[in-house]
Amino acid sequence: MPVSNTVNKKTTTVQKETKAVVLLSGGLDSTTVLFHAMGKGYRCHCLIFDYGQRHRKELQKAKAIARGAGVPFDVVRITMPWKGSALLDRRIKVPQGRAVVADEIPATYVPARNIIFLSFAASCAEAAGARTVFIGANALDYSGYPDCRPEFFKAYQMVLKKGLKASLDGKTIRIAAPLLHKTKAQIIRLGRRLNVPYELTWSCYKGGRRPCGQCDSCLLRAKGFQEAGHADPLLKNR
Fold it and tell me: Residue 32 — left, alpha, or beta (φ > 0 → left; ψ -120 to 50 → alpha)?
């Protein structure tokens, strides 16, 4: 079953399939996906991952967003002692001010991160009887991570089809990535229609009091708001 890059007819009007697991990082994309799923009538449960990232701020933001939306959540704590990413190892510098090119994988790539996160989400969904896992992956305005590309999600969907008891029972868990083929500007416009609280989100790879404005995530966020014709609420008083 191919990954969904838009919510199909079966989920436009949610009937029996009401439960969904949402991967929530506290960032712009995942928060938009949460509100998108809620708007479609899903009863969402968020998974927030504490995986040893550089700062705790995104965890605080994710929990605040879930609480504000009235959505239950679990914080999943995992360790990656082998590190291998600037987001896990402070000895590796976070790239700043670079031209973000999708075919150049930066030092902020975390090895197999989406494979790990989706595996936890699939386990949660199967145990809870949810049929959909929502993820805020994007393959247009992004840093080039291989686990954010359409071909990855198509392959991972096949893994779930072949490897879950739910699938053998005819209840395949679907990976929904509704933002996969949208630009950041399109995502922001969608979020504004959904009243997403972007002032609560955090995108910067650094955990300072204000966004650094120079890392890949900050640059992509700024590009999105500029092209959408809206001011970023995190920068209003900058």
Answer: alpha
Rounded to two decimals, the pTM is 0.91
Order of all β-strands in the sheet with 73-77: 73-77, 43-50, 19-23, 132-134, 174-176
β-bridge partners, 174: 132
DSSP state of 52: -
Q: What is d(CA 142, CA 103) in angstroms, rounded to the nearest whole number?
A: 10
Q: Give me the amino acid identity at 120.
A: F
Q: Given the structure tokens 């922001």, which residue do they identify?
A: 188
Could you tell me the CA-to-CA distances from 19 to 23, 57, 87, 92 in Å, in that order?
14, 28, 31, 39
Are 65 and 45 in contact by the 8 Å Cβ rule? The answer is no
Beta-strand (E) ranges in 14-68?
19-23, 43-50
Reported as a single tens digit per residue, the pLDDT across 200-217 is: 999 999 988 899 999 999
DSSP H or E stretch at residue 68: helix 57-69
Instruction: Name which of 114-118, 124-128, 166-170 the model is least confident about.
Output: 166-170
In a 10 Å sphere around its CB, with 0-12 CB exposed, 13-18 middle and 19+ buried, how is residue 103 labelled? Answer: exposed
- What is the distance, to the nearest Å, from the Cα of residue 92 to the centroid of all Cα atoms in its chain? 23
Say which CATH architecture domain 16-228 belongs to.
3-Layer(aba) Sandwich (3.40)
